[in-house]
């Protein structure tokens, strides 16, 4: 997709690109530049969040920032212009005005969800939106046209043209139904708002999420003082929309981005794959001793060594001994897809929610290489810099709930994968060792698997092999 357009010899526009696999929108998290700043080819100008991850966008040309089309916190469709650059500052050219829409034009609006597009990889797929044509004349009323023109003028950084008083209610499409996307309709229903009473501010008279929140605000709330108008001819940034709705007793936070993808994927996985979870408690005292020795090993210098490293290696060996567990269920073709590689996913809690980046071809890595990959994966995830590619194509996942002091859990499978291993907290407990009760380092493992392609015997073998390796780490050598 082309992400830039040329409006004149002087001004060039940069569009929101598809930064993932078939993504349709992204939220602008932060602008790193402001109007008047000088930018160079390749310079990062903003950070956006998709349903998969936060991604930094570089500008593909040199110049001076003329206009930011959307403020932080705005969700923008792929293909929309987000920034205009003056590539010939100091010349007398002016940007061409956007052509007015023809009254008979047939703008596109979101229809009910159809089809499936990828979301956060490892969390399956989510329902996507297709486009439908509005009936001619659906939004050609003077009131709707005035609202759309005012909003477009604000986004373009110009003073809004004079318009008649705002209508008291939304302008419905022909047939009486107000125009709104399905998520906005759901929000209105949750808030008890009749869409016929909401004043639309979206393009072509479409009701936005912010419109619904505004309608739900208490009538007695004082109106905010209007922001001062920008100086004549100065570039402008539209005022940021409210993203959180507060009242005296509750706070409502819009579900979007990574959190939305997690919710959709978890529901899809839980009600698609028949989950089975098995548990085993194991003495990992020898593993903890191995971890302490590896920390002092010169071959492991410069990498982080912890119990998760040995557990990951143990799971990889268990998969090698039981390769049938590394598979996926193809519902469309009614096939079991056997994977001859392991992309090992590691669930990581981040400020934006849970993500599952994976280590590509983890089965081929040595212990130092695996340690380095784990360290890089965790650091990148915590910094919010995980790329969509890093989350694509996972085959088996580990989730370490032990870091929160939790003993165990029943993890939900990532869609498209057959198994997920949960690792509980490692604690000093009384344990029968060599016929005597002694304090030992003990943990509980839980393996969830898709019972359509992994039966009880296979799942039990994998879990038992992981436990046996952690109890006797020398098996990493004898079984490898």
Overall form: globular
Structural class: alpha+beta
Q: Compute the average pLDDT.
A: 77
**Low-confidence segments, ≥5 residues, pLDDT <50?**
96-175, 218-243
How many distinct helices?
A: 9
Task: Estimate what percentage of residues fall within beta strands.
Answer: 25-35%
Number of E strands: 24
- Tell me the Rg in angstroms: 27 Å
How far apart, in Å, are the first and last alpha carbons?
A: 45 Å
Q: Which oligomeric form is depicted?
A: single chain
* Largest sheet geometry: 7 strands, mixed
Tell me roughly what share of residues is in helical segments. 10-25%
Record the SSE blueprint.
Elements: E1 4-6, E2 11-15, E3 25-31, E4 38-39, E5 44-49, E6 54-58, E7 63-68, E8 75-77, E9 81-86, E10 108-118, E11 125-133, H1 142-155, H2 182-191, H3 209-216, E12 245-246, E13 251-252, H4 257-270, E14 275-283, H5 285-296, H6 307-321, E15 327-330, E16 335-338, E17 344-346, E18 348-350, E19 353-355, E20 358-359, H7 367-382, E21 396-400, E22 419-423, E23 427-433, E24 436-450, H8 456-471, H9 475-478
Parallel strand pairs: 17-21, 21-22
Antiparallel strand pairs: 1-2, 2-9, 3-5, 3-8, 4-7, 5-6, 7-9, 10-11, 12-13, 14-24, 15-16, 17-20, 18-19, 22-24, 23-24
Helix pairs in contact: 2-3, 6-8
């Amino acid at each position: 997709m082309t992400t830039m357009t040329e409006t004149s010899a002087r001004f060039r526009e940069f569009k929101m690109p598809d930064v993932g696999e078939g993504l349709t929108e992204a939220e602008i998290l932060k602008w790193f530049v402001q109007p008047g700043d000088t930018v160079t080819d390749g310079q990062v100008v903003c950070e956006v969040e998709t349903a998969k991850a936060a991604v930094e966008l570089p500008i593909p040309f040199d110049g001076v920032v003329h206009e930011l089309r959307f403020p932080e916190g705005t969700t923008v469709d792929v293909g929309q212009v987000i920034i205009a650059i003056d590539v010939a500052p100091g010349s007398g050219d002016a940007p061409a005005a956007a052509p007015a829409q023809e009254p008979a034009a047939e703008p596109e609006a979101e229809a009910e969800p159809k089809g499936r597009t990828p979301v956060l990889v490892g969390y399956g797929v989510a329902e996507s939106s297709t486009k439908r044509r509005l009936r001619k004349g659906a939004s050609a009323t003077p009131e709707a046209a005035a609202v759309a023109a005012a909003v477009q003028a604000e986004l373009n950084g110009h003073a809004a043209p004079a318009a008649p008083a705002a209508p008291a209610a939304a302008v419905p499409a022909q047939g009486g139904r107000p125009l709104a996307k399905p998520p906005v309709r759901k929000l209105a229903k949750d808030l008890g708002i009749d869409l016929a009473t909401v004043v639309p501010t979206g393009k072509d008279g479409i009701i936005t999420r912010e419109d619904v929140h505004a309608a739900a605000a208490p009538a007695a709330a004082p109106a905010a003082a209007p922001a001062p108008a920008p100086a004549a001819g100065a570039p402008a940034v539209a005022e940021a929309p409210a993203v959180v709705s507060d009242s005296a007793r509750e706070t409502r936070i819009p579900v979007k981005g990574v959190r939305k993808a997690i919710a959709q994927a978890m529901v899809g996985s839980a009600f698609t794959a028949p989950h089975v979870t098995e548990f085993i408690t194991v003495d990992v005292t020898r593993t903890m001793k191995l971890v302490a020795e590896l920390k002092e090993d010169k071959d492991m210098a410069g990498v982080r060594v912890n119990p998760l490293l040995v557990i990951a290696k143990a799971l990889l060996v268990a998969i090698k001994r039981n390769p049938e567990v590394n598979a996926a269920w193809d519902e469309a073709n009614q096939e079991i897809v056997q994977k001859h590689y392991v992309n090992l996913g590691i669930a990581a809690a981040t400020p934006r929610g849970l993500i599952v980046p994976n280590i590509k071809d983890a089965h081929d890595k040595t212990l130092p290489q695996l340690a380095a990959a784990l360290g890089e994966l965790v650091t990148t995830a915590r910094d919010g810099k995980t790329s969509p590619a890093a989350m694509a194509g996972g085959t088996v996942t580990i989730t370490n709930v032990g870091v929160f002091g939790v003993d165990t859990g029943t993890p939900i499978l990532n869609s498209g994968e057959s198994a997920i291993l949960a690792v509980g907290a490692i604690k000093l407990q009384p344990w029968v060792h060599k016929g005597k009760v002694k304090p030992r380092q003990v943990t509980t493992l839980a393996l969830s698997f898709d019972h359509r392609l992994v039966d009880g015997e296979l799942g039990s073998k994998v879990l038992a092999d992981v436990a046996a390796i952690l109890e006797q780490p020398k098996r990493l050598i004898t079984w490898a």
